[in-house]
Amino acid sequence: MNHLFRLSAGLFRPGTGVYRRRPVSERHVSLVASRLFSSAPENNELGQLIKKDKVVVFIKGTPAQPMCGFSNAVVQILRMHGVDDYASYNVLEDQDLRQGVKDFSNWPTIPQVYFNGEFVGGCDILLQMHQNGDLVEELKKLGIHSALLDANKDEQKK
Amino acid sequence: MPVTAESIRNKLAAEMGAVHVEVEDTTTDHCSTSFKVLIVCPQFEGKPLLQRHRMVNTCLTEELKEIHAFEQKTLTPEQWEKQKSE
Lengths: 158, 86
Description:
The complex is a heterodimer. Chain A is an alpha/beta fold. Helix content of chain A is 47%, strand content 13%. Chain A contains 8 helices and 5 strands. A 5-stranded mixed sheet of chain A has the order 1-3-2-4-5, with helices on both faces. The longest helix of chain A has 12 residues, at 69-80. The two termini of chain A are 17 Å apart. Chain B has helices spanning 5-16, 49-59, 61-66, 77-85, and strands at residues 20-25, 34-40, 69-75. In chain B, strands 1-2-3 form a 3-stranded mixed sheet. In chain B, a hairpin with an 8-residue loop joins strand 1 and strand 2. At the A-B interface, strand 5 and helix 6 of A face helix 2 and strand 3 of B. Chain A: Residues 55-120 form the Glutaredoxin domain. Chain A: This is GLRX5 protein. Chain A: Keywords: 2Fe-2S, Iron, Iron-sulfur, Metal-binding, Redox-active center.
Protein backbone atom coordinates (compact mmCIF):
# COMPACT_ATOMS: atom_id res chain seq x y z
CA MET A 1 0.00 0.00 0.00
CA ASN A 2 3.00 2.24 0.51
CA HIS A 3 3.21 3.24 -3.12
CA LEU A 4 -0.36 4.50 -2.85
CA PHE A 5 0.60 6.78 0.01
CA ARG A 6 3.54 8.23 -1.87
CA LEU A 7 1.35 8.72 -4.89
CA SER A 8 -1.28 10.35 -2.71
CA ALA A 9 1.26 12.78 -1.26
CA GLY A 10 1.89 14.09 -4.75
CA LEU A 11 -1.80 14.86 -5.19
CA PHE A 12 -1.56 18.00 -3.13
CA ARG A 13 0.68 19.85 -5.52
CA PRO A 14 -1.54 21.79 -7.87
CA GLY A 15 -0.90 21.11 -11.50
CA THR A 16 0.45 17.63 -11.01
CA GLY A 17 -1.49 14.56 -11.90
CA VAL A 18 -1.45 11.13 -13.35
CA TYR A 19 -1.95 11.93 -16.97
CA ARG A 20 -3.19 9.25 -19.29
CA ARG A 21 -3.59 9.86 -22.96
CA ARG A 22 -7.26 9.33 -23.44
CA PRO A 23 -10.20 11.61 -24.03
CA VAL A 24 -11.32 13.18 -20.81
CA SER A 25 -15.04 13.46 -20.80
CA GLU A 26 -15.41 15.17 -17.46
CA ARG A 27 -18.21 17.59 -17.83
CA HIS A 28 -17.48 20.90 -16.30
CA VAL A 29 -20.49 23.07 -15.90
CA SER A 30 -19.71 26.72 -15.99
CA LEU A 31 -22.11 28.44 -13.73
CA VAL A 32 -22.16 32.03 -14.79
CA ALA A 33 -25.41 31.55 -13.06
CA SER A 34 -25.75 34.29 -10.57
CA ARG A 35 -29.34 33.99 -11.58
CA LEU A 36 -29.38 30.57 -9.94
CA PHE A 37 -27.77 31.51 -6.70
CA SER A 38 -28.46 35.11 -6.02
CA SER A 39 -31.90 34.60 -4.54
CA ALA A 40 -32.86 33.03 -1.26
CA PRO A 41 -34.22 29.57 -2.12
CA GLU A 42 -30.71 28.29 -2.89
CA ASN A 43 -31.32 25.11 -1.06
CA ASN A 44 -33.81 23.94 -3.59
CA GLU A 45 -31.62 24.62 -6.60
CA LEU A 46 -28.55 23.18 -4.92
CA GLY A 47 -30.58 20.22 -3.80
CA GLN A 48 -31.52 19.53 -7.39
CA LEU A 49 -28.04 20.16 -8.66
CA ILE A 50 -26.47 17.50 -6.48
CA LYS A 51 -29.02 14.93 -7.52
CA LYS A 52 -28.62 15.51 -11.24
CA ASP A 53 -25.50 13.39 -11.43
CA LYS A 54 -24.19 10.40 -9.49
CA VAL A 55 -20.96 12.13 -8.68
CA VAL A 56 -20.96 15.88 -8.09
CA VAL A 57 -18.03 17.94 -6.87
CA PHE A 58 -17.69 21.59 -5.95
CA ILE A 59 -14.11 22.67 -6.42
CA LYS A 60 -11.91 25.67 -6.93
CA GLY A 61 -11.15 25.70 -10.60
CA THR A 62 -12.00 22.97 -13.09
CA PRO A 63 -10.96 19.34 -13.51
CA ALA A 64 -8.69 20.45 -16.33
CA GLN A 65 -7.27 23.24 -14.21
CA PRO A 66 -7.77 22.95 -10.47
CA MET A 67 -6.85 26.11 -8.60
CA CYS A 68 -6.06 24.63 -5.23
CA GLY A 69 -4.16 21.63 -3.90
CA PHE A 70 -7.14 20.09 -2.15
CA SER A 71 -9.43 20.50 -5.15
CA ASN A 72 -6.69 19.02 -7.30
CA ALA A 73 -6.47 16.02 -4.99
CA VAL A 74 -10.19 15.31 -5.41
CA VAL A 75 -9.91 15.52 -9.18
CA GLN A 76 -6.86 13.25 -9.25
CA ILE A 77 -8.41 10.64 -6.97
CA LEU A 78 -11.50 10.43 -9.16
CA ARG A 79 -9.29 10.16 -12.20
CA MET A 80 -7.28 7.34 -10.65
CA HIS A 81 -10.47 5.38 -10.19
CA GLY A 82 -11.42 6.00 -13.79
CA VAL A 83 -14.36 8.20 -12.83
CA ASP A 84 -14.46 10.75 -15.59
CA ASP A 85 -18.16 11.22 -16.02
CA TYR A 86 -19.05 13.55 -13.20
CA ALA A 87 -20.32 17.07 -12.74
CA SER A 88 -18.02 19.67 -11.33
CA TYR A 89 -18.79 23.24 -10.36
CA ASN A 90 -16.23 25.98 -9.97
CA VAL A 91 -16.96 27.98 -6.82
CA LEU A 92 -14.46 30.62 -7.82
CA GLU A 93 -16.81 31.68 -10.59
CA ASP A 94 -19.66 32.45 -8.25
CA GLN A 95 -19.40 33.79 -4.72
CA ASP A 96 -23.01 32.94 -3.99
CA LEU A 97 -22.36 29.34 -4.95
CA ARG A 98 -19.22 29.29 -2.88
CA GLN A 99 -21.06 30.36 0.26
CA GLY A 100 -24.30 28.62 -0.67
CA VAL A 101 -22.77 25.18 -0.89
CA LYS A 102 -21.09 25.65 2.49
CA ASP A 103 -24.40 26.61 4.08
CA PHE A 104 -26.20 23.82 2.31
CA SER A 105 -23.94 21.04 3.52
CA ASN A 106 -23.06 22.79 6.78
CA TRP A 107 -19.44 22.21 5.89
CA PRO A 108 -16.92 25.04 6.04
CA THR A 109 -14.58 24.26 3.20
CA ILE A 110 -14.19 23.50 -0.49
CA PRO A 111 -13.83 20.97 -2.15
CA GLN A 112 -17.07 19.15 -1.46
CA VAL A 113 -17.99 15.76 -2.86
CA TYR A 114 -21.50 14.37 -3.27
CA PHE A 115 -22.44 10.80 -4.25
CA ASN A 116 -26.03 10.24 -5.31
CA GLY A 117 -27.12 13.53 -3.81
CA GLU A 118 -25.50 12.77 -0.47
CA PHE A 119 -22.65 14.75 0.99
CA VAL A 120 -19.59 12.53 1.31
CA GLY A 121 -17.03 14.97 2.63
CA GLY A 122 -14.07 16.99 1.57
CA CYS A 123 -10.64 16.09 0.33
CA ASP A 124 -9.48 14.46 3.60
CA ILE A 125 -12.39 12.10 3.69
CA LEU A 126 -12.12 11.19 0.01
CA LEU A 127 -8.43 10.56 0.43
CA GLN A 128 -8.94 8.32 3.45
CA MET A 129 -11.68 6.43 1.64
CA HIS A 130 -9.33 5.99 -1.30
CA GLN A 131 -6.53 4.72 0.94
CA ASN A 132 -8.62 2.27 2.93
CA GLY A 133 -10.58 0.82 0.02
CA ASP A 134 -13.93 2.37 0.95
CA LEU A 135 -14.02 4.49 -2.19
CA VAL A 136 -13.99 1.46 -4.44
CA GLU A 137 -16.95 0.09 -2.48
CA GLU A 138 -18.90 3.34 -2.60
CA LEU A 139 -18.32 3.65 -6.34
CA LYS A 140 -19.56 0.09 -6.78
CA LYS A 141 -22.77 1.06 -4.99
CA LEU A 142 -23.18 3.85 -7.51
CA GLY A 143 -22.76 1.36 -10.30
CA ILE A 144 -19.30 2.63 -11.12
CA HIS A 145 -16.53 0.08 -11.56
CA SER A 146 -13.30 1.53 -10.26
CA ALA A 147 -10.34 1.38 -12.62
CA LEU A 148 -8.16 0.42 -9.69
CA LEU A 149 -9.94 -2.91 -9.46
CA ASP A 150 -8.67 -3.75 -12.93
CA ALA A 151 -5.23 -2.47 -12.07
CA ASN A 152 -5.12 -4.78 -9.07
CA LYS A 153 -6.23 -7.72 -11.14
CA ASP A 154 -3.40 -7.09 -13.55
CA GLU A 155 -0.98 -6.94 -10.64
CA GLN A 156 -2.12 -10.29 -9.35
CA LYS A 157 -1.84 -12.03 -12.69
CA LYS A 158 1.90 -11.32 -12.86
CA MET B 1 -8.35 37.12 18.79
CA PRO B 2 -6.51 35.54 15.90
CA VAL B 3 -6.69 31.83 15.44
CA THR B 4 -3.47 30.04 16.31
CA ALA B 5 -2.38 26.44 16.47
CA GLU B 6 -2.34 26.84 20.22
CA SER B 7 -5.89 28.09 20.49
CA ILE B 8 -7.15 25.27 18.29
CA ARG B 9 -5.27 22.69 20.28
CA ASN B 10 -6.63 23.99 23.56
CA LYS B 11 -10.20 24.14 22.36
CA LEU B 12 -10.16 20.62 20.97
CA ALA B 13 -8.58 19.20 24.09
CA ALA B 14 -10.98 21.02 26.38
CA GLU B 15 -14.25 20.57 24.54
CA MET B 16 -13.91 17.19 22.94
CA GLY B 17 -12.16 15.24 25.63
CA ALA B 18 -9.45 14.42 23.15
CA VAL B 19 -6.63 12.29 24.48
CA HIS B 20 -4.18 13.53 21.92
CA VAL B 21 -4.17 16.58 19.67
CA GLU B 22 -1.61 17.72 17.15
CA VAL B 23 -2.06 20.97 15.31
CA GLU B 24 0.16 22.06 12.49
CA ASP B 25 0.02 25.50 10.96
CA THR B 26 0.23 24.79 7.24
CA THR B 27 -0.30 28.36 6.13
CA THR B 28 3.00 28.47 4.25
CA ASP B 29 1.92 25.53 2.07
CA HIS B 30 -1.26 27.19 0.94
CA CYS B 31 -2.57 30.53 -0.14
CA SER B 32 -3.74 31.59 3.31
CA THR B 33 -4.48 30.56 6.87
CA SER B 34 -4.60 26.77 7.02
CA PHE B 35 -4.22 24.17 9.68
CA LYS B 36 -3.77 20.44 9.78
CA VAL B 37 -4.98 18.64 12.89
CA LEU B 38 -4.77 15.16 14.26
CA ILE B 39 -7.32 14.40 16.95
CA VAL B 40 -7.49 11.21 18.96
CA CYS B 41 -10.71 11.00 20.89
CA PRO B 42 -12.66 8.09 22.36
CA GLN B 43 -15.90 9.78 21.33
CA PHE B 44 -15.09 8.92 17.72
CA GLU B 45 -15.68 5.27 18.44
CA GLY B 46 -18.34 3.77 16.21
CA LYS B 47 -18.82 6.94 14.23
CA PRO B 48 -18.26 7.19 10.47
CA LEU B 49 -15.69 9.63 9.15
CA LEU B 50 -18.15 12.30 8.18
CA GLN B 51 -19.71 12.38 11.61
CA ARG B 52 -16.31 12.62 13.27
CA HIS B 53 -15.33 15.51 11.08
CA ARG B 54 -18.61 17.26 11.75
CA MET B 55 -17.99 16.95 15.51
CA VAL B 56 -14.71 18.72 15.06
CA ASN B 57 -16.25 21.32 12.79
CA THR B 58 -18.90 22.06 15.41
CA CYS B 59 -16.27 22.42 18.12
CA LEU B 60 -14.29 24.83 15.98
CA THR B 61 -17.20 26.76 14.43
CA GLU B 62 -15.81 30.15 15.42
CA GLU B 63 -12.25 29.39 14.37
CA LEU B 64 -13.33 27.96 11.03
CA LYS B 65 -14.86 31.27 10.08
CA GLU B 66 -11.36 32.72 10.03
CA ILE B 67 -9.55 29.79 8.54
CA HIS B 68 -9.23 29.33 4.82
CA ALA B 69 -8.32 25.65 4.71
CA PHE B 70 -8.51 22.86 7.21
CA GLU B 71 -7.29 19.27 7.13
CA GLN B 72 -8.23 16.82 9.82
CA LYS B 73 -7.41 13.30 10.77
CA THR B 74 -9.78 11.81 13.33
CA LEU B 75 -8.81 8.62 15.12
CA THR B 76 -10.03 6.62 18.06
CA PRO B 77 -7.42 5.79 20.71
CA GLU B 78 -7.35 2.25 19.32
CA GLN B 79 -6.65 3.39 15.76
CA TRP B 80 -4.00 5.76 17.08
CA GLU B 81 -2.15 3.00 18.91
CA LYS B 82 -2.33 0.83 15.82
CA GLN B 83 -1.00 3.60 13.62
CA LYS B 84 1.87 4.31 15.97
CA SER B 85 2.98 0.72 15.85
CA GLU B 86 2.95 0.49 12.06
